[in-house]
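Example 292.
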Amino acid sequence: MRDFSADHRWLSINTATVRKSRGAELPLPEIIEACARRDIRAISPWRDQVAAAGLETISRLVKAHGLELSGYCRGGMFPAADTQGLRAARNDNRRAVDEARELNAACLVLVVGGLPGALAGKPAHKDIALARGQVRDGIGELLEYARSANMPLAIEPLHPMYAADRACINTMEQALDICDELDPARSGALGVAVDVYHVWWDPKLKAQIERAGRKRLLALHVCDWLTPTVDMLNDRGMMGDGVIDIPQIRGWMEVCGFAGYSEVEIFSTGNWWQRDCAEVLDICIQRHRSAV
Ligand code: ZN
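Predicted structure in complex with zinc ion:
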């Protein structure tokens, strides 16, 4: 297992972690500059942040600083209530692949979606099996496009509390079943993003990481699970402040050959988004060395 204690060579910042500084929206170019000043070598930006600054601007900045993208957030949201919605999702996902390609991302992260309309508070139906079928079909179709762009797709299983509105793929086992079905040859074009926040509780986690193997372990997202957690979405903890044994999970992945970045992804309305970006990044560096 790699020793992270001496430097932050393998730290990546998911730019949602500092999307707000002192409660105010922080533009992506400023986030990139702040990371570069600290010799942070990788980021994982969100599409809305890229769109706000312009894809060309971000592409130029990433290249100028020699930054790598540990991933691109995000594609997915495949299920829809009608054919028009399914087509819109397909087209939007192809654009996400194109953007990821332009930014030379290591993978496009997929948050696959749940019941159509649920995120807006108006679920169109209760058929989660139908949604899961649309997810499988959507990934299958996108995979062909992504292969032609040489952009790996990383399915991110989300904690079951998000099954209705964000992702009906909730375990590594489910995600890997889809990988087996759609990419039985283990080509490297399809795999998983292991976000410790979503999967740490899973009694099958170690076995499923071993099942995934190097070719399908495409990303590692880290933060911590706080007790108590006061918000389902935006109360993630800093590594070391909660109950997840992050080094153990990273160790399981590295035994399988994972050698990528450890990407810090923290959504935190009440705490980290209230602090100054500089302070948050400095603490990310410290905790990367001591708690990951
Ligand atoms: Zn994640």
